Amino acid sequence: MGDMQQNSPIGQENDSLQPRLEVSIVGGGIIGVITALGLLHRGMHVTIYERVEKFEEVGAAIAFTGVARECMQRLNPSVLEALARVGRSSPHERQRYWDGFHPRTKESAMQEESSLLFDVPEGDLAYWACLRSHFLNGMVGLLPEGTVQFGKQVVNYTEGGGSDKVVLHFADGTTAGADVVIGCDGIHSATRKLLLGKGHPASNPTYTHKTFFRALVPFPGALAALGADKANDCCIHVGPDAHVISFPTNDGKMYNIFIATHDPQEWSDPYTMTAMSTREELSSALQSWGPHIAEIIGLLPENIIKYGAFDMAENPAPTYASGRVCVAGDAAHASSPFHGAGACMGVEDALVLAELLGHVQSLPVSARPRCLSAALQTYSAVRIERTQWLVQSSRDICDIYQWRYHGTGEDSAKCKAEFDWRGKKIGHFDVDAMVAESRTEYEKLAASAVH
Ligand SMILES: Cc1cc2nc3c(=O)[nH]c(=O)nc-3n(C[C@H](O)[C@H](O)[C@H](O)COP(=O)(O)OP(=O)(O)OC[C@H]3O[C@@H](n4cnc5c(N)ncnc54)[C@H](O)[C@@H]3O)c2cc1C
Ligand SMILES: *[C@@H]1O[C@H](CO)[C@@H](O)[C@H](O)[C@H]1NC(C)=O
Q: Where would you find the membrane-spanning parts of this chain (predicted)?
């Protein structure tokens, strides 16, 4: 394992003679904090600048693949330990895909012969799920005192001009310098806008024409609605222009419901990606569906938030790095939520950055500025294809669920084949090869920068 600083305690102390690399991270979301822990583990000096006044993660669930967990282990074993304290592997052996549309009676909706389309074993993705806030809080507890500065909204950065620092400018008029800046400031990333230049098309995410709704309801209602066989398993109901994913959670006490619908309309305001909606609105949109969908909708509260799914598929960023500034996580490649793997991509980004910056830190100070930009260019080149594939595939997978994808339509065998290969691409990924490739590419680039 590429553990560069064995047994190095997480801390801002420095026991080597080389000055530490100073890294500024913009944004204290899951990816900003994971990246910070990976860099601290390699002995760098890290400051996170977060816009709001405290860490804010919602109580919703998030799941990480086996690949993301392998990256966490290599970033900093404490990250994986923090996940292991709050995460659970899926208790469901398989996911069953049901026709949510055609069955006309509760009996036929319940029967495998009449409405089960296919099932897939849980194996490939090996997800561990947890509550976002639990995981983030656990990681925050690992950060040394003083790592995070709250109430610091980045509005600009300046690089060069005779200084070998990149200087962040905050909304409160203050500034802070560092050797390198990593923007982990999410889908509306200010760092991305500044990096790509004013008015670049990839500055703003666009509407995917999908809305989604989520709710956590008491399990007994789901049991009464769906029967024990369906309610105890993970059910994916598919059909025309919508899909419903539901499963028991919280040790079988609660039932998690996710409903996504196609929306041909425009979304009014991309900066508020949510709108108030009602159970009535959803039930009339899905009124021609089968009885189990009506039952699931019946479990929702009367007033419910409608989320607009935004992403960067239409305007992908041409690069994730410029000079000594880069973007990672959603700031680089915000995706719609339909693969449930957006954060996993950010964890993979963090590992590449940590490994490359760890190498730069081992160089003499005079060689660092030049090698930093080679390291960030390498990071961008190594990560761009896979992460942008995920953004596009997340759109595709939603269309496949919703019988809108050109190559599959309502054909279950074809849909299953799509789910299979896409799941394997996410879940069977060679982390060693990614790290090795970034090292080789970096060495080539750094050598050509010297001559
Ligand atoms: C419904 C849903 C379900 C999902 N499920 C999964 C899942 O199961 N598995 C998975 O892998 N992914 C999932 N995702 C995707 C995942 O949530 C995101 O990829 C992940 O949260 C991105 O984290 P981030 O740290 O990059 O960005 P964010 O979480 O958006 O954090 C950005 C941070 O930057 C701060 N910030 C913003 N601007 C500035 C500024 N100018 N200056 C300073 N600070 C700033 C913000 O306040 C925030 O704290 C899901 C997404 C959704 C919507
Ligand atoms: C950022 O700072 C540079 C250099 O001072 C300036 O030219 C630019 O207009 C600033 N950009 C923004 C968005 O404030």
A: 23-41
